[in-house]
Amino acid sequence: MIDPSTFRPEDHRRVLIVAPHPDDETLAAAGLIQRVQAAGGTVRVLLLTDGDANPWPQRWLERRLRIGPADRARWGRRRRDEWHAALDLLGVPVGERRALGWPDMGLTARLALAPALWRTPLVRELKDFRPDLVVLPALADRHPDHGAAHVLMRLALAAWTQEPPALLGYPVHVRDVPGARIEVPASAAFMAQKERALACHRTQLALSGGRLRRLIERTECYVPTTPVTAPGVLPWRPSPVLGPWLRLTIATPAGLRTVPWSTLPRLRAGSPPRVELDDPAPRFVKLHTNLPSPWIFDLWGWAEL
Ligand SMILES: [Zn+2]
């Protein structure tokens, strides 16, 4: 467990950075990566997807409207190359880069697959590297792949029997992250190198350059743990109008299940519902609807119970 008042990245020797997409490692942790390595520590980056479901920048840069499976695979290879170029600049050795090639925008669905298809490879990575610090997406991040990446890693960590590493969550697609914040400032030289590393992610700068450059101007910021709500009490009060379409997905070491919101017992009128889970911790729940939407971000996202 990290104490926010005394945390220094240099106190960790083996740091695993978990990136759902190529560029997350740079946006969230380029300064931390450089600080750990400058102090003699080893950083490994674990890339979960190649960011291949990224149609608008691809349409723009490739001047095409229709994107077929071959186009998508080519885009993924391009983004993987950009990731390698950025890690070259950040000084992460080739031997410390792992890429799983899972489908972009498919990490929530991954949780529903057999554990051999996600938990086993993640535990293998943990056993192989034996991190003392894992830097992973914040659970409250509203990009569905980011929240799901947190849950996938936490469930893999629960299945790994070694001394648990310290955890830091990083926000990318969320304004306010609940919990104590840890700022990890970087020197001017490290910040300049972060800018150069971001410039390698040219596909991402095409349509979002302003937003991403503003993002990396900020001091890197982390949350040490996810705040756990009162036992079993869900943190959301969605509009009753949405009731028939709301679903709660529950992910624990025992598996994944989805239940209609309307079947959850109410504490009292107007209160958030409560769920009783006998499963071993950690326990995660996600509120969502089953309505189709062009908006990719989560309205409510995940919470830990
Ligand atoms: Zn991402």
From TrEMBL:
Pfam families according to UniProt:
PIG-L
Q: Entry's SUPFAM superfamilies?
A: LmbE-like
- Which parts of the chain span the membrane according to its record? none
GO MF terms here are: hydrolase activity, acting on carbon-nitrogen (but not peptide) bonds, in linear amides
This chain's protein is named LmbE-like protein
Organism of provenance: Aerosticca soli
